[in-house]
Specification:
heterotetramer; A: 81 residues; five-stranded mixed β-sheet; 3 helices; 5 strands; globular; B: 138 residues; Aldehyde Oxidoreductase, domain 3; five-stranded antiparallel β-sheet; four-stranded mixed β-sheet; 33% helix
């Protein structure tokens, strides 16, 4: 499972991506718990529900299940255009 | 057509490339977004545009296909740049091709609204003192 | 700026010429009108565009000034051609420059609506058999 | 007084413009009478009120008075853009 970070999320995690090889979170809610543990500064943003999650390039708005070969992206509201 | 690129684009050439394929097109509407010198009352030095490229292509393709269908467009082009962009540089080009003008006007607005809301690009504005990550508002 | 001319225009150059004057412009919307191959179910060979030039300049200037004021534009350019124009040739270019995009979208639509209604240009379509003077409808 | 004709009006009058040097019509309604007399094919169009009149480059919607040095233009609905 690959987790990608963008914009100021990357400034908090200090990495662009990481691989979770084993015992990966089973769904988005479990992933959030892992993130909060590893990156305490993310907690308030996750709790305020401002971040967006994409699984395999598609937005997810629910507590979707995760598979070991998924690419999950976590990012703040977009600002292109 | 969707293009995500570092380099600048030539509006004349981009429009001609697609227009030359269709003799039934009567109206072409284009939107070009530029880096402004002042934003939120701060002097901008330059911006850094980050992109989640694979997803951006997918999202832009969906928006383009929706716009073509919804507004009966003949064709549609979206070019979005990333990387370092200075004040006065171009950020994005959206061009809609249709038989009559109202379809393309509506489609171009529609595409920009969704692009600003859903496509994974992020702007970091670098000021003469400090920097800010931006967030699009409605 | 208002231009009434026989010759074609280069979109890239026309936009650059004005944009280079303003670093506060974030959005540029342009409309380009083209001669279509088929109109009212007839195969078009070419069109003859007649103009009452002095009055067209005056009417276009009024529309431009109204649009700038009403939609808070930074600037605005209208180029309209006349004479013989073939299928796929460009007829008109309207470019609106503003800080934010919605103003320019509205202004560009506004200008085209009034241009089609009030500015003294007349199109004669020449078909493979016969010809028709056109009349804009709403 | 100069009278200018455009588009298919010109096809009826067979001229692009003409000068009325003396006894010029005093207002638009009088001009219409002169036009109908000189160009019978214009009558139905004038009666149907489809033509537009401009005096010195400005549209007129009333029976405006005319002066000897005015430029009056008569044309069908426009079709630019």
């Amino acid at each position: 499972m690959k987790i990608k970070y963008f914009a100021w999320i990357k400034d908090i995690t200090n990495k662009e991506f990481e691989i979770i090889a084993r015992n990966h979170p089973k769904n988005i809610e479990e992933l959030k718990i892992v993130l909060k543990k590893n990156y305490p500064d993310l907690e308030k943003h996750l709790d305020q529900d401002v971040l967006r999650f994409a699984i395999n390039l598609e937005y997810t708005f629910e507590n979707q299940n995760l598979n070991s070969n998924d690419e999950i992206a976590i990012f703040p509201p977009v600002s292109g255009g | 057509m969707i293009k995500i690129q570092k380099k600048d684009f030539n509006i004349e050439q981009e429009i001609k490339l697609l227009k030359d394929k269709y003799s039934n097109v009567g109206a072409v509407i284009s939107f070009i977004g530029f880096v402004r010198d002042i934003n939120n009352k701060k002097d901008v030095k330059y911006i850094e545009l980050e992109v989640y490229e694979k997803m951006a292509i997918k999202e832009l393709s969906k928006i383009k296909d929706n716009a073509i269908k919804k507004f009966d467009l003949v064709d549609c082009l979206i070019v979005h740049r990333y990387g370092r962009l200075d004040v006065n540089d171009r950020i994005v080009l959206v061009v809609c091709f249709s038989e009559h003008r109202n379809n393309s006007f509506e489609a171009c607005k529609f595409i920009m609204d969704y692009l600003k809301k859903d496509v994974p690009f992020w702007k970091k504005e670098i000021y003469f003192k400090g920097s800010d990550w931006l967030e699009n508002t409605n």
